[in-house]
Design brief:
The protein is an all-alpha fold and 205 residues long. Helix content is 53%, strand content 3%. The chain has helices spanning 3-8, 16-43, 55-58, 64-67, 74-101, 109-122, 133-152, 181-184, and strands at 185-187, 198-200. Helix 2 (16-43) packs antiparallel against helix 5 and helix 6 packs across helix 7 (133-152). The radius of gyration is 29 Å and the shape is flat.
Length: 205
Amino acid sequence: MDWTWYLFRFEGRINRAQLWLATLIILCWMLFLAGLIAGVSKLFGGPTSFGFHDDDIFKVVDPAAYRSLSAADLPRFAARAIGTALFLWVYLATSIKRLHDRDKSGWWMVLFFVLPGLYNQFADRLPDSYADLPLAIAAFVFCLWGFIEMYCLKGSRRTNRFGANPLAPRPARDTRPRWDQQSEIELMPHKAGPPPLWRVKRGHD
């Protein structure tokens, strides 16, 4: 498998199993990087707890997330920002390829991921009224729909506008020996008369 294409590029298609694998890889990376940063922080007398959360993605567009930052928080904030950007890239690259497998554009991620995430980030600052209920229901429906669409449903069986079916059997490899031009042609020894002739060996015509 081309792991660079699989985890970091946006063109093509992947199946359900590959998306589940990418999700597991992201979780393992999160645990490893969080443990590494917590260990380094402990060596320098800093906090020993560190973790990544999906709401870190949407804190980028939340001004309130920056007001409480101090100079001591900057190294941890930078580490969290770099790690979150990496995980987000891999998640979007694999999710969009999975949407391609469903013959859907990657822009569906706006409904399935961006809008529910923004709602969850700012829900506690919305007025507490029944007017908020349709937004909450819409965020839940889009999130659930996206999960079913990408993680549960089969992809297009045939080649679609984004590429071939990743589960389609590959064509059998051609094991026939390649044509060797030198074995098919021989040079006749020079004799008095016409110049040497190229002719096909007997048994190869």
